[in-house]
Design a protein that fits this description.
The chain is an alpha/beta fold and 357 residues long. The chain is built from 14 helices and eleven strands. It is globular and about 60 Å long. It comes from Winogradskyella haliclonae.
Amino acid sequence: MISITTKNSVIHFNSTVYTELNTYIKAQNPSKIFILVDTNTHDLCLPQFMANLESGDIATEVMEMPEGEDHKTIDICMGVWEAMSQYNADRKSLLINLGGGVVTDLGGFVASTYMRGIDYINVPTSLLAMVDASVGGKTGVDLGVLKNQVGIISEGAMVLIDVSFLSTLPQNQMVSGFAEMLKHGLIIDAEYWHTLTHLEELDLSDLDQLIYDSVIIKNKVVTEDPTEKGLRKTLNYGHTLGHAIESYFLEHDAKTTLLHGEAIAIGLILESYISTKVCGLPNEVLDEISEGVLKTFAKIEFEEVDYKPIIELMKHDKKNSHGIIKFVLLEAIGKAKIDCEVPNEIILEAFTYYKAL
C-alpha cells in the first residue's frame, strides 16, 4: 500500500513500517528511545515490535501504563513524564506509542508537552486507533469522566499501521473500531458506507483495504482543516451524544462500561434520528442507518432516568459555543452539516426511537 503523506507526518502500512521506522531512527539518531505500552500491548505486541526494531547503540526504555479508558488521566501522564525525566530524556529523545487509542492519545500528549515537545511515533494496535485515534494529531486525556477535555493538536513524526496486530484483539475491541469506519462513510462517502454495511459480500482479506480507505477519508478531512474550524468538526458525527453516553456509563457503577465504539454506535443512530427532524434526512435513510449499525452493534438498554444526566454531560462537548450545544448532523449519507442547534425535546425523542428499535 502506498504511504499517505499528511501535512507534518507520514502514514506507513504493513510491509513498509519497520523499514521506514528503522530508516527514520538511523537518520534522526535520537538520544534515547522510549516505548509506551499498556499492560495488554506489553505482552501481546511488544515482543513482535522489539524483534523488528533496529535501535543500534541507542538506549531504549519501555514504560508500561494500565490498560483502559479510566487510566487516560493526567495522573498517568505525570508518571510517564517523571519516568522519562528519571531516565534523562532530553529534547532529542523519541517516544513511540505502541497501543490503542488510549496509549496513542495519552502518549502523543506526553510527547507534545515534555520539554515543550519531543518527537513521537504512533504504532496503533487496535482497529479504533488505526482508523481514527492515531491519525490527525489530536492528543489528550480525560478530565474525570469528561472525554479528551485536556489536550493539544500536534502530529507525530509518523504513524505505522501493521494490521497483523489486530490478531491480538478480542472481538469486542475489533467491533469497537468499526464504529469510526461507519462514521467515515456516513459523513463523507456513501459508497464506502454501503461497502461496510454489506460485509457479507467481502472476506477478511478486504480488511486491509477498508482500513486504508478509512485512513484516506480521515486524512483528507484533517489536512483540509487541521485545527477543527469547519470540516474537521464533521468527524464528531455520533460523538456529541456518544461521548456523553460513554462518560455516563463510565461514572455509574450500576452500568456496564461501554467501549468507545459501542457508545459512538448509539450516537450514530440517535443523531441520525435528530437529523430527520432538523436537517430533513429522509426516514428511509434513518432506517438504513439504524439497520446498518445494528448489524454489528447490539442495542444497549436505557432507562428514562438516564436521559437528563446524559444531556447534561453534553454541555461539556468541545464543539459547543457560548453555552449552546452544537451537533454535527446529516442531510444525506455522505453529506454532513455542522453547528446545528437541537432542542432537548428532539433529543428525548431520539432516545424513544432508539429504545423502540
